[in-house]
Design brief:
The complex is a heterodimer of chains A (162) and B (110). With 162 residues, chain A is mostly helical. Chain A folds into two domains: 2-48; 60-158, no CATH class. In chain A, 62% of the residues lie in helices and 12% in strands. Chain B has one domain (2-93). In chain B, α1 packs antiparallel against α2 (33-59) and α2 packs antiparallel against α3 (63-92). The relative contact order of chain B is 0.13. Chain B is built from four helices and no strands. Classes of the chains: A mainly alpha (162), B mainly alpha (110).
Chain lengths: 162, 110
């Protein structure tokens, strides 16, 4: 019960902060409309029963920042690799399917890992069931980059399940 | 100082534009749906990412930049989700990915 109250308060604060940042107006009318729409969204979220730890992993926020930095660099490197393949006149691709085990325990961890794989050019997660991912890779090299498991370790560390 | 910022931001915007075009060329050149997804992925991660970071440098420390950051955050959640939904739909409707090493394996089947 206390957890639910905590998440209701934090969701309201996050939503109102978002409203202020997006509107940039501070007249009483718009501030009031912001309160109204936040209350409406929190009420709807309660009815949908999504006000919980999974819908709002606040504890992850700070650990996510260094992870995003690492991921952005990985995305940059593989974007250049894939662009070179695309612009190569011989088009040297060797598409393959592979199965990868996700070592995270929670579904949230699985989804973060699967989405990170998809965000990295050259690999796309096409299926996810019971902690096993089916990944389509564009070349042997992009597939090999995944099997060393560094991304898996980093996601597990970020969701705090090491 | 303004000049350095302008040059840097234009390099990023041009870089983003380059990756957008490269992604589009990839979508045209690659042989099947699943390989094309990789090329499309370049446009919405690297292409849009560099463009938005370049625009942030133009925006400076303003609410505009905050909105640009939010666009990147939302893109980084929605684009893999939609890619995954497309791949799932393709798989469950029976589309098989082309697999193989040599060029002939890939061009013979359509």
């Amino acid at each position: 019960m206390r957890g639910r109250l905590f998440h209701t308060i934090s969701l309201s604060l996050v939503l109102y902060g978002l409203w202020l940042l997006l509107s940039g107006h501070f007249e009483p009318l718009l501030l009031g409309l912001g309160v109204l729409s936040c209350v409406l969204v929190v009420w709807v979220s309660h009815r949908m029963d999504v006000v919980d730890q999974e819908g709002q992993p606040l504890a992850l926020t700070w650990r996510a920042l260094p992870y995003w930095g690492w991921l952005a660099w990985e995305i940059a490197k593989s974007s250049v690799d894939v662009t070179r393949i695309i612009l190569n006149p011989r088009l040297p691709i060797s598409p393959r399917l592979m199965r990868v085990r996700a070592s995270q325990k929670s579904e949230l961890g699985h989804v973060i890992y699967a989405n990170s794989i998809t965000l990295t050019p050259g690999t796309v997660t096409i299926d996810l069931a019971d902690g096993e991912l089916a990944v389509h890779a564009l070349t042997r090299e992009t597939a090999a980059a995944l099997t060393d498991g560094e991304m898996d370790r980093r996601v597990t560390a970020m969701v705090g399940e090491r | 100082m303004m000049l350095v910022r302008d040059i840097l931001s234009w390099l990023l915007i041009l870089g983003g534009g380059f990756f957008l075009v490269a992604g589009a060329i990839g979508v045209l050149r690659l042989p099947d749906f699943f390989t094309r997804q990789h090329a499309a992925g370049i446009t919405d991660t690297m292409g849009a990412g560099l463009l938005l970071v370049g625009l942030m440098l133009q925006g400076g420390l303003t609410l505009v930049t905050v909105k640009l950051v939010l666009i990147i955050v939302f893109l980084s959640f929605t684009s893999p989700t939609s890619t995954h939904a497309l791949a799932q739909a393709a798989l469950s409707s029976g589309l098989k990915p082309l697999l193989g090493e040599r060029r002939e394996d890939l061009s013979s089947k359509t």
